[in-house]
Design a protein that fits this description.
The chain is mostly helical. The protein starts with a helix and ends in a 7-residue tail after the last helix. The protein is built from two helices and no strands. It has one domain. Helix 1 packs antiparallel against helix 2.
Length: 55
Amino acid sequence: MALVLFLIVLAIVLGLVGAVADGLLYLLFIGIAVLLLALVISVVRFRRGGRRPTR
């Protein structure tokens, strides 16, 4: 869960810097890609049900 939250915060920061700074539009696209990655990770974890494997 902490990884997903970290990736979302990172995506927001990269998106803001990419949108505001002149000539750094590629950071906006990297931020979008990181956000999509965070969403994919959270969907995969949600579908598994958060169960831990038994030993």
